[in-house]
Amino acid sequence: MASEKLVFTNKPITCVGLGEILWDLLPAGPRLGGAPANFTFHAKQMGLDSMAVSCVGNDEWGEKALKILQEQQVKTLVFRSDKNTGYVQASLNDRGVPTYEFALDTAYDHIPLNDEIIAVAKKTQVCCFGTLAQRQVNGESHKTILAFLEAMPEKSLKVFDINLRENFFNRDVITAGLNRCTAFKCNDDELPVVCKLLDTPEMTPVEFYEKVLHSIFGIEQFIYTAGERGSDIFYYGEHSFVPTPKVDVVDTVGAGDSFTATFVGLTVQGVDFKVAHKTAADVAAYVCTQNGAMPVLSAELLERVQSLVAAAAAS
């Protein structure tokens, strides 16, 4: 992996959220989601030229998903399948933290590998992917995601946000992702699971960054979130910790995706990583005060983002 910081001077920067588009069936009603789709939406709010790449069903829910993304002016390369559009039954605890029950063998498990998707990959500078859409061993989406990553330009940012759900992951999928990514994201629940799958002892975030991500895989960026306790980012050998802002939580669905998209979206435009980290924490906190994973940011936050990007471009 290259040790040069990945900052892109071209505008707009091409960005893809690759994987599941699904419906979160929340107590407050259905909301469009899926971690890569959430990432795409929030990366667009950071000013990136964002596209969601996925597959939905030839059904009413698929039509609604595409309509919402179109209304939000999010670009899509979304294929259609005879399988049902993905969905997940989400229930919230008293702190607004969700637990999930996923439908099996849905459209997002069948993202096709074709010339059109590879053509997009060759022009993509930033991509976020996870494990959920790769849950079928040797499945269609698994093969497509790996091929997409391989086809991306040499100087590109590949963000592996693992999003471990139920039992939809294994050592091979995680190792394949680590071997291909240039940035890794997980939370405090996921890190011990990853350590176990990699046959390493449980580690603190800094130990995992130094002994595994950096030393073994050559990964320079590690985004680690710990809910109410705060977040750590390790960035080309430097470290930043930001406490989680205190807000009245409605639900936490999509907060982590907005955090990742904000940090990545700002740093690839040259914003200082500690400033980007603080902004990411504030964006995620705002998302927690809203229903669903894709709220439009407040005017104050959008103005702040635009000012940071403009200042970075001028420096």
Automatic annotation (TrEMBL):
InterPro entries noted in UniProt: PfkB_Carbo_kinase, PfkB_dom, Ribokinase-like
Keyword Ribonucleoprotein in annotation: no
PANTHER family, per database record: CARBOHYDRATE KINASE PFKB DOMAIN-CONTAINING PROTEIN, HEXOKINASE FAMILY MEMBER
Record-given protein name: Carbohydrate kinase
Top-rank taxon: Bacteria
GO molecular function: kinase activity
Record organism: Candidatus Anaerobiospirillum pullicola
Record carries keyword Transferase: yes
The entry's keywords: Kinase, Transferase
Family note: Belongs to the carbohydrate kinase PfkB family.
Carbohydrate kinase PfkB domain sequence ranges: 32-295
